[in-house]
Amino acid sequence: MSHRLRRLLAALGASAVLVAAGVAVSASGGTKPPPPPASATFRGIPEHNGVLGDPKAPLTLTEYVDLQCPICAEASKQTLPWLVKNYVRTGKAKLELRTLHFIGPDSERAARVVAGAELQGRLWPFVEAFYAAQGQENSGYVTDAFLRTVSKAAGVDADRALTAADGGFATRQIEQADADATRLGVNATPTFTVAKAGGQPRVIGSGVLSHAQLKAALR
Amino acid sequence: MTRRVSVAVALAGLGIAGYLTVAHYVGAAPVCAIAHGCATVQKSSYAVLAGVPVALLGLLGYAAILGSLARDGERARTLTAVLAFSGFGLSAWLSWIEVGELHAICIWCVGSALCMTALAGLSAARLA
User: Fold this and answer.
1) Which residues on A lie below 8 Å from B40 (Cβ)?
2) The complex's ipTM?
3) Confidence (pTM)
């Protein structure tokens, strides 16, 4: 064997060891701690049929999400508390959610249980708790055990929510969300839309919107 | 000539990894040509290896490759090859994760993977 070939093989061998170690560490991943109890963001605000706030509020804000989407979780932390404080609590707007499921099977399971939480008037706390525990996309983390943990943190009766997830209401909710998204051309999450009383919804934008963007859109 | 091309490619990789490292620590989503793919990859559990951001590891890797390219001796060439082969292997693994697990493509990561592939080929040629 030539000297050069030996060096090449030695380099390959050393690299293989380093790569194997890196892959082993990377593949081992990590588990997230259970979500914290529901925050005060939605406390005391009425929720009817998944609509947060005064049903007679002049503006209707709708957020299109996929619960597996990490940017949706980010928007939930950065945008929603501000929106709720300044527009929902003040009666200027009510907040609706459309749960899409384009990322994968975990998204659909999550969306179905969101419908179960909606039936208990706890949709928004459930979604907040879900984001706090959000795992790696399509890793199969949305198990019944995971959903029970999230339900507990959100004050949702897990048995009822999981049963409802398999029912017709949950199917109708996700079909409605898909239909609304298609009609408005929503192809990214999170997307926010706004509608004035009696008016048609229009898309404000997608992603983590700045407060200035939202203020301008909600004038 | 091969060494000069390697330096150019490593500098390109250093720029990409530097940008992703800054994006990681600032908490911003990298500008991405494919909707939310970069943010998805960046926020996944695979973006950190043993507590160290993968982008920072890439930055250090490219810096080490550039350092090894400063000399042209036999040991320096072998060191470049070890670093480039390792970078290539890890890039291949992470690319597979993007496509197979996350279903999201980060165009910056693809750019870095291409740089590592080129560096692996170039360093193999320098050893041969």
Assistant:
1) 69-71, 137
2) 0.79
3) 0.56
